[in-house]
Amino acid sequence: MSQDAKKRRVAEAAFDKIRHLLDKNTPIGIGTGSTANCFIDVLAKSKIGILGAVASSKATEDRLRSYGIELLDLNSTGTLCVYIDGADEADSALNLIKGGGAALTREKIIAEASVQFICIADDSKRVDCLGTFPLPVEVIPMARSLVGRAMVKLGGDPEYREGVVTDNGNLILDVHNLFIVDPRGLELAINQIPGVVTCGLFAKRPADILLLAGEHAITELMRDQ
Ligand code: 5RP
What we know:
Layout: H1 3-18, E1 27-30, H2 34-46, E2 52-55, H3 58-66, H4 74-77, E3 80-85, E4 89-90, E5 96-97, H5 104-112, E6 114-122, E7 135-139, H6 144-153, E8 157-160, E9 171-176, H7 183-191, E10 196-199, E11 201-202, E12 209-213, E13 218-222
Parallel strand pairs: 1-2, 1-3, 3-6, 6-12
Antiparallel strand pairs: 4-5, 5-11, 7-9, 7-10, 8-9, 12-13
The structure holds ribulose-5-phosphate.
Ribulose-5-phosphate binds next to α2 and α5.
């Protein structure tokens, strides 16, 4: 089965899982990327009525708008019952690396604001140890070099993502060669560096459920509470 087919499958599985939560009073959160896009397509095709969605990026806002799905402001919705989003890597504790699509900061905000974070991915994203995928870090432009030097001290090799400006007007450093044995500790350490908006480690607030599409079936992993 192709990776695209797996993404569609896992998006359908996520929709089936949360269908009972969806009604005209329910705001949900929706992330960014090709897997999240598949979920939006499934949601739109279902014609199920929801209040609307908080989107983690302008790209997701555009896709939701194209289907006539209402865009909601997180400042007005309060806590969201569920957030659906993809990931670049996921470990067995459901810690994630996210931000391949440069939307990590808004993704982290929505994850924090949601009762349940369901991460959807094809099985290539499952890893034993995070860090093969370069860790995205969103940085205030004037701090690019400062943060880069700090990332070297932490053992990484930062690479400036040329030509990318985030929806928040900032830059992305992709940090290579981190062997992440303590995802939560590293997340907190990176987020302390002046000029860092946030890093793409989701360990302080990991996913609650990880749905992984394999060749023949969807595997569901739940976080130990
Ligand atoms: C965007 C993200 C995405 O969830 C991540 O990059 C996975 O994308 P895709 O579903 O296209 O593989 O974090 O910032």
